[in-house]
Structures are given as C-alpha cells and as structure tokens.
Design a protein that fits this description.
- The complex is a heterodimer of chains A (269) and B (194).
- By secondary structure, chain A is of the alpha+beta class.
- Chain A is built from 7 helices and 8 strands; from the N terminus they run ααααααββββαββββ.
- Chain A folds into 3 domains: 46 residues, no CATH class; 36 residues; 137 residues, no CATH class.
- In chain A, the strands form 2 sheets. In chain A, strands 1, 2, 3, 4, 7 and 8 form a 6-stranded antiparallel sheet that branches.
- Chain B is an all-alpha fold.
- In chain B, 76% of the residues lie in helices and 0% in strands.
- In chain B, α2 runs antiparallel to α3 and α2 crosses α7.
- The relative contact order of chain B is 0.09.
- Classes of the chains: A alpha+beta (269), B mainly alpha (194).
- At the A-B interface, α1, α3 and α4 of A face α2, α3, α7 and α9 of B.
Chain lengths: 269, 194
C-alpha cells in the first residue's frame, strides 16, 4: 500500500517508458510518469536513448517536386475534362455495358425458348463422331471408286486392281494428301500403270473410319514430288483419314521417270 | 490543412480543377515520399511509388469517401503499390546478384542486407530501419515519423491495436540497439584512424 492507501503501481520502467513514447498519457499523467522515472537512472537512460532514436525519424529527407510529372501523367491518362464531358464519357461507358448485358439477356431468352437454335457448335457424343466418321470413310471409298471409274473412261483398257497409298509429310494433317505414283496402280491389260492423286481437303476427322470402311491406307514419309525418296510406309492413324470432295489425278505414263506426270483433274462432287 | 479545406480541394480536383490537384500533391508529397523512402530504403523506388500513387488517386477521386482522411487513402494505395512491387521483384532481390530490394524474411545477419546496407544506404538510421522486420518498420515509421495514432495504424495495416503496440515496443528497442551499435562501430573506426 502507498501512503495514500492505493495499491502501488508495479509496472516496470519499460512499460512507463512505452506509455510516454506511445503518447498514451495525457499531460498530467506524462508529468507524473516522468517524475517517477527521474528517480531511476536506468529508466532515464532508456527513455533518453529511445527518444533519440525515434526523434531521428522525424528528420525527414527532402522530397523532389513531383507535381509537374504527376499532373502530366494524369493529363495523359485521363485529361482534366470538364464535369459535363466526363459525365458523357461515363454515360457512354454505362450504355456500352448495358448493351452487352442486354445482348447476353436476349441470347439467354432465345436459348430458353428455342433450344435448337445454336449460336455455337455443341459438343457431340463420341458415338456420333464414330458413326459420322464411318459414313465419311464409306463416302471416301465410294468417291475413290467413282474417280477411278471416271479415269477408266479415259484409259484404253479396264482397271483391274487399285492400291492406294497416301503420302504425307508428317503426322500433322496436310493441306493435300498425295498418293505415290508407284503405289496407286491401275492394272491395265496386266500392265500396271502408276497413278498418283491428292485430295483437296485436309485429311482429318473421323475416328476408326478407314478400318470400318474396309479400306487400308498407308502413310508414307514424303511425297516423291517434293523430293522424298524413302518408302517407309506405316499404317496411317485412322483418325487422320477423311473423305475429300475434290480429287486430282496425275497419270504417269512412264514410271521410270519419276517427275513426268500428266495432269488431269476430276470434280467428283 | 483542416478537414473542410481538404474536402473542398478534393471536390474541386475531382471536378477537373488542375490547380486543386496540384495543391493536393504539394500538401502530401513530402510526407508520402519520406514514408516510402524510409520503408523501402531506395530513393528511386520511393519516387516511382509516390508518383504512381498520386496518379491513381487523382484519376479516381470520384471514388474517394470523404469520411476518411485523404492522406490515409493515399498512404494505403502507396503501401499496396509497394507491396506489389516487392512481390514482383522478389526473385530478383532474393538472389545475391542484385541487392536492391529487401526481403522481410531476411534477418539482421543476412549478407544481402549487409551488402545493401553498405552500398545503398549511407545513413545508419536507414540501415537500422532496413534491418527491422517489415511490419515493425512500418509501424515505427507511421507512428514516429508520420505521427499517426495507434488506432489509425492498426486500421491501415489491418492488425489489432495490441499488435501495433507490441511492434512499436520491439521496433523502437531494436532500432535503438542497432543505432547504438553503429555509433560504437563508428567510434572504433575513428579511433583506429587517429
């Protein structure tokens, strides 16, 4: 107990110092704390050294004048426009946003009332893809047969046998798929006549279609017309084969001379 | 500048008054620069952030809520820019090839900080500040340099007032210890040269 009957304040001098430095105490309190600390040399030292450290922070370095640069940048990004013009810009922005929201709303309502109305292609089932791929491959086979039939009319003798080997320059789908001249062979009077041809449309699409149609296609390394020489054929990835609508045929009357092609084209649509 | 004056100035600047915008910049650029410089320890960083903070504030004055002080808003934006810049530069300043930006994870013994202290900062106060953990440093700067009350610092930094007080308590003592150590070192060097 103190003389006046109160409990003695047992706070350490660190806490008193903090109370002073944290500006928690008002003037009379601060004076009382200061009087209390004055009796304690360590506390005085503590307070003085901390005060010196924190006072150093008040000596702020002088700042360069940024005014011109800042105003210039603000002017560039968003000119100091009169309020009326700025309001017009804001109204314009709001109108554009409202237009977008309206368009989205109209689309949603149209979808709800007419679900068949498709704005974007819908994903299809794998079974649909396979069946469409199969029919495409069948159509491909038919078009090849029809094309051969058309060619046959130009030939002097009937075609007995056809072997087709597509030539591709890599695994990526090509703009054209060319069949090697020595691989698409028309057996005319038991004398093979080499023919090469290419499809107009890229050979991509149906999965498993070629096998389903009963046609065997092979893939080669490079077109002989592009200077490819090796014939390392391998079975083509069936999902890369698809029917084309337009076929071009090159007749090679002299297979021993690889670049002597005569050109004929047939639109088989 | 009192609150009413400040509000009027901001209203005029928001309405497109260039002179009012200029007055806003002049009123706050010194304190914001001092804060950023002490926080980052790099004048170039402080300059960039001060300019960018003012540009952002002045281009979105219509969103300013005048229940708060303009300076609080400005400092909050500057702080966010500084934190973003630190995160962006983190891989650079963590390598010891480039010693510019500092990391709060690095302790007082860090060689990167030591090199930085010797090369980039000349005064012992800045060196000592850079050795403080980030939160402590910011609390000490806001309280002792900017004279912000503890409650405002707590709000600005998103931490309880008790945590701010404890950061202040520890930060001040660490700062004092480092300043005294640097003074002792300086005295020893001076003695050796005599």
């Amino acid at each position: 107990m103190t003389d006046d009957g109160r409990q003695p304040d047992r706070r350490s001098h660190e806490e008193w110092v903090d109370e002073l430095l944290d500006r928690r105490a008002d003037d009379p309190e601060a004076r009382a704390i200061f009087d209390r600390l004055r009796a304690d040399l360590d506390a005085c030292r503590e307070l003085a050294s901390l005060k010196r450290a924190t006072d150093a922070l008040r000596r702020t370095p002088s700042a360069p004048d940024f005014t011109t640069d800042i105003l210039h940048t603000v002017d560039r990004r968003r000119r100091f426009l009169p309020a009326r013009l700025r309001r017009m810009v804001t109204v314009g922005r709001v109108a554009v946003a409202a237009g977008v929201v309206f368009a989205i709303g109209v689309t949603a309502i149209a979808r709800r009332h007419a679900p068949d109305l498709a704005f974007t292609p819908e994903p299809s089932h794998l079974s649909t893809l396979v069946s469409s791929g199969t029919s495409e491959a069948r159509a491909c086979a038919k078009t090849v047969v029809a094309a051969v039939g058309t060619i046959r009319d130009d030939l002097t003798a009937p075609v007995a046998h056809v072997v087709a080997v597509p030539v591709r320059t890599g695994d990526a789908p090509q703009r054209y798929v060319r069949y090697r001249s020595n691989s698409l062979t028309f057996d005319v009077d038991r004398q093979p006549i080499s023919v090469s041809w290419q499809t107009e449309t890229p050979v991509v699409g149906g999965s498993g279609a070629a096998d389903a149609a009963g046609w065997v296609f092979y893939q080669d390394d490079a077109s002989p017309r592009l200077g490819g020489s090796t014939y390392a054929s391998r079975r083509a990835a069936p999902d890369l084969i698809r029917a084309g609508l337009f076929f071009e045929f090159w007749y090679d009357p002299a297979p021993s001379l690889p670049d002597r092609f005569e050109h004929a084209s047939r639109d088989i649509r | 500048m009192d609150r009413a004056q400040e509000r009027r100035l901001i209203r005029r600047a928001a309405a497109g008054d260039k002179q009012a915008a200029e007055a806003c910049i002049r009123a706050h650029q010194q304190s914001l620069y001092a804060y950023m410089l002490r926080l980052s320890g790099r004048p170039d960083v402080a300059e960039d952030i001060v300019q960018e903070a003012f540009v952002r504030v002045l281009t979105s004055l219509d969103r300013f809520d005048d229940r708060y002080r303009f300076s609080t808003w400005l400092f909050t934006i500057a702080r966010r820019l500084y934190v973003n810049a630190c995160q962006k530069h983190k891989p650079v300043y963590e390598s010891d090839v480039v010693g510019g930006w500092h990391s709060s994870a690095e302790g007082p013994e860090s060689p990167v900080i030591d090199a930085e202290v010797h090369e980039n900062t000349r005064d012992s106060l800045q060196a000592a500040l850079l050795r403080l953990p980030e939160d402590q440093r910011e609390v000490v700067i806001l309280f002792h340099q900017q004279d912000w009350p503890i409650a405002l610092i707590a709000q600005h930094m998103g931490m309880p007032e008790g945590t701010v007080k404890s950061h202040l308590h520890r930060g001040r003592r660490r700062l004092r210890a480092m300043l005294e150590a640097s003074e002792r070192d300086a005295a020893r060097v001076e003695e050796a040269w005599r």
